[in-house]
Amino acid sequence: MKDAKLVVKSESHRNTIVHLSDHVAIGGQKIVIIGGPCTVESLTQMETVAQHLQFAPVQALRGGVYKPRTSPYAFQGMGLEGLEILAEVRKRYEMPIVTEVMAISQIEEIAACADMLQIGSRNMQNFDLLKAIGQANKPVLLKRGLASTIEEFVMAAEYIMSYGNPNVVLCERGIRSFDPYTRNVLDLGAVVALKQITHLPVIVDPSHAAGKRELIADLSRGAIACGADGLIIECHPEPDKSVSDARQALTLDDMVNLVRSVKPVAEAIGRQVYEIQRPQLAIA
Amino acid sequence: MKDAKLVVKSESHRNTIVHLSDHVAIGGQKIVIIGGPCTVESLTQMETVAQHLQFAPVQALRGGVYKPRTSPYAFQGMGLEGLEILAEVRKRYEMPIVTEVMAISQIEEIAACADMLQIGSRNMQNFDLLKAIGQANKPVLLKRGLASTIEEFVMAAEYIMSYGNPNVVLCERGIRSFDPYTRNVLDLGAVVALKQITHLPVIVDPSHAAGKRELIADLSRGAIACGADGLIIECHPEPDKSVSDARQALTLDDMVNLVRSVKPVAEAIGRQVYEIQRPQLAIA
Amino acid sequence: MKDAKLVVKSESHRNTIVHLSDHVAIGGQKIVIIGGPCTVESLTQMETVAQHLQFAPVQALRGGVYKPRTSPYAFQGMGLEGLEILAEVRKRYEMPIVTEVMAISQIEEIAACADMLQIGSRNMQNFDLLKAIGQANKPVLLKRGLASTIEEFVMAAEYIMSYGNPNVVLCERGIRSFDPYTRNVLDLGAVVALKQITHLPVIVDPSHAAGKRELIADLSRGAIACGADGLIIECHPEPDKSVSDARQALTLDDMVNLVRSVKPVAEAIGRQVYEIQRPQLAIA
Amino acid sequence: MKDAKLVVKSESHRNTIVHLSDHVAIGGQKIVIIGGPCTVESLTQMETVAQHLQFAPVQALRGGVYKPRTSPYAFQGMGLEGLEILAEVRKRYEMPIVTEVMAISQIEEIAACADMLQIGSRNMQNFDLLKAIGQANKPVLLKRGLASTIEEFVMAAEYIMSYGNPNVVLCERGIRSFDPYTRNVLDLGAVVALKQITHLPVIVDPSHAAGKRELIADLSRGAIACGADGLIIECHPEPDKSVSDARQALTLDDMVNLVRSVKPVAEAIGRQVYEIQRPQLAIA
């Protein structure tokens, strides 16, 4: 990885910490958990999610408003209306928001109401988008491409950093393989390698990797034990009614249970999880 | 492929023919061969290429001016200056031009001087780009993603067609696999399948698939025998001096030999190749 | 491939020709076509196949009597009874027989009534079997493993040769990939590479690669155009009644049509096919 | 997996426990760790390994005496002489022995001095070997094939069980993929799935998956957190002098550290590790 200059770990730069808010940072001692539905569907849906997850506790909310769908006839996301929902939920629950940017033209509007801009797997080597996001003033969640090598993934982060944005978090989300049992193969060896090669935080998305909700909790604990700095997990008030990726969404109760089960694993390797921080909201 | 409405073959629409110029069409009885360097480097380079290839004969020229490179520090292409070179060569040699579009912002300027807009493998599921190119008034060369299924490939074409552009040519260019001997694995089974499923022309890029120039001629003949409607092949006046993909570029002489060797194979399956059409240029 | 000593092509050893009978040899100017059912089911079945295929003409018959099946409860082949059928058909129709050897203990009995011993994909790195077959006095058809690299494939042939058997024919039969549309991905780039690296004949099995009968004819012609020395194709008197691999078996009529369509492709690259050799049988 | 009858989990058979000795069992509450070199090289080597590892504590020793090597010219293992070394070490250190069986003819001699018979990845679908091992009266360690689906892996275990041997332990050891950074991709999703589908114990071999020693400790902890019942790890007194797989072998000290680090992770998910059981040896 001779061309990886800015992302590689060095004696003087061992660890990047990316702040999503005053209270939430990825890459430090604490494991960060991001949760929420695949797709933003309504304000009610997002409020239900936020209310439950704040006590898990989950530290940030995810939810897509621009959706990369294989078919042009599939629901493409709520767009601006969805962004307004995210902005509202963000304000009411004081939780940072992560949402996907699919095009350069969306960066400004999404940056106005999200705390972290996600680059999806299909766009990991959309180099013009990487360059543009490199000039945005927001943390970036860069997902690994469906069949990207570790080197290509590292170099995609190098694109973003070389254009001026140092706040990049890498996300392993499963790679393509021959086995139809799981949707993708979660490559935790890549997580270990990325933590050794780069100074960037690395989180894991077990939902898209597994594609089956019954596999997600075990894989989440495995990811944390491997050294991942956090998790991003799909959950939904009524998984079977989700407009997309229903098969892999957890119920909100399962999500809470999962988050709680992560704590002892994190502590077993000398890390911590976030504690519930806002009792006043908990009371309300 | 339940959602593939516009691209699927039917009794009433068995075959789409995409015209690159008055003389060159892809998808008919004649095999089309597109040749040229990976990257446009200079007017001299492109003229040398065009002069040789017109007598192969090659029917269209390729050459990248916006280059998707793994590293941000690698040469990113000549950009507008390269487009001017392409425009000049197109005019002098009356050969259609194929070149890659990496961003929505480039469509207009590239459409002004190219005859076919290429969507590269890394952007096969850059859906916003597909939608925009679907509104462009130029033929599109859609390359299969590095690890895209046949269904995903078909649906990417469906995006373009559903936004209004019927002139889509599919290009198989090798998929990711475990074997380091070849750069990718050329999937001619996909070519056969795509010809059966869709009415769109399908061409093959053996250069990126093989990654080694000594494999390209045999794979080219194999592709034609499988039913491909054409080939897109990298060649260079001095392959070892190519600024990119040097290992897979043919010399111009080897390119001419390859093109000539395709003729009997095409005829063996009841098709034809283009004959040299412009003797006056041959004399000059 | 530093350890590949015996299989690599050299100035003094450019081409191995493997004789299946006095009349049939693989690796020379003539393309060899081997046909027959996945599994030997009855004498009637095999006679029907032989009668039809001799006039295609097909040069050798295939048919499994020991079958590698994913499930222990699936039909495991007729065993010795099947071998007797093969011996009978071989004698009556004077056609060489190719059948699979799954265990060292089967070599002697199979060698007694077959002309070529097949090592299946799952056993490509069953090294003890390779060593034993290296000591057998029969030609070997070595199929590429489901996910074997070209180097591993070459080294498996080296095992056989290093134990004394020079008559090895390599067979590309598709590799594992992520796309469910085809059963495997036929890797014709490997065929081209193997012809360049080794002096051994290389044939192609499009049936197991494609897994769908409608893809097989085009892939067969593609394989020949790429330089393959022959084909091994599954066909059955009543494909839908085949006890295994029904979806990929051709009808006998389709098989005859396929064989005939190969002739012009072979000639287009300067090779020939076998002509029908036994008019007396044709009359009978 | 309709044909998986004996291996599938049911209400009445939720969990198989496989005993390697009076003291060591795989599949219960306790995590089992198996360690040792890739290849048995000498009695001194194996004694050094056993002395160190008994205090890690490691519960069983691994070491190959019949080695599946890509090249016929590579060291093929010590054979019978190696088996005698294993027998000697087994007696002196009272540690169960795991070693690979490559051929039916080796089963008897290996069963006489080993406690667990390993079927290697390349032989996972060597069905005749599976049938024979199904009739052996020893526990079996069945490694997943290099590109085997979960269903094929489960069915290979079904072969062994259907021939009479109920003591099968599954081992995930990485699958083939496109990324050259790691040797294979450790598929912990398969571990989770296998624990849900079958009642068999599942262990993980991070050494062959990673191929790089610096990745192994993190992957080991990840595997345990995912629910694996144990680990099998390569280590060597002098890794760089190992006759095979040197790059992935741990030093004995690193192995001890790894084992100790597993304890809190096991406890975090409600399991335990084995404690040192033989103080008299510890004193000596």
Task: Determine the mean pLDDT of chain A.
Answer: 95
Q: Which segments of chain A are poorly predicted (pLDDT under 50) over 5 or more consecutive residues?
A: 280-284
Quaternary status: homotetramer
Largest interface: B-C, 42 and 42 residues
Proportion of residues in extended strands of chain A: 5-15%
What is the C-level CATH assignment of chain A?
Alpha Beta
- Give the termini distance of chain A in whole angstroms: 51 Å
Q: Largest beta sheet of chain A: what is the strand line-up? A: 3-4-5-6-7-8-9-10
Query: Topology as H/E string of chain A?
Result: EEEHEHEHEHEHEHEHHEHEH
Q: What's the alpha carbon Rg of chain A, rounded to whole Å?
A: 17 Å
CATH architecture of chain A: Alpha-Beta Barrel
Helix content of chain A: 25-40%
Give your account of this protein's structure.
- The structure is a homotetramer of 284-residue chains.
- Chain A has ten helices and eleven strands.
- In chain A, strands 3-4-5-6-7-8-9-10 form an eight-stranded parallel beta barrel, surrounded by six helices.
- Chain A is of the alpha/beta class and 284 residues long.
- In chain A, helix 1 (43-53) runs parallel beside helix 2, helix 4 (127-133) crosses helix 5 (150-162) and helix 8 runs parallel beside helix 9 (252-268).
- The N and C termini of chain A lie far apart (51 Å).
- Mean pLDDT of chain A is 95; it is low at 280-284.
- Chain A has one domain (19-283): Aldolase class I (TIM Barrel, Alpha-Beta Barrel).
- Chain A has helices spanning 43-53, 80-93, 107-111, 127-133, 150-162, 188-197, 206-210, 216-226, 252-268, 279-283; strands spanning 18-19, 25-26, 30-36, 60-62, 97-100, 116-119, 140-143, 168-172, 202-204, 230-234, 272-273.
- Chains in contact: A-B, A-C, A-D, B-C, B-D, C-D.
